[in-house]
Amino acid sequence: GNTNLQSPDWETSVDDATHWDIVDRDDVVPIWRMLDDDLAAKVETVMNAAFELERLPMEQTYRIKNTKTQNYLSYQDFYYPDQIGKIVVAAPARSHEDNDRILWKFVPVPGKAGDPPPPKFLCYDHKFKFYIKPCSSDNDYLHASFRFNAPVTTELEGQVSLRRITQANKLHPTDEWIIKRRNEPFKDNGEDVKNIDLVMHKTAFVKRTDEFRLHCVQKSCLGAHPVPLQNIEVKIKGKKPSNLFSNWRKAVNLVPEAEAEADFGNGKKEKDKKKWQTAKLGDLDSFAHKSLEVIMLSDDVLEKNSEDVGWSVET
Question: Which superkingdom is the protein from (predicted)?
Answer without folding.
Answer: Eukaryota
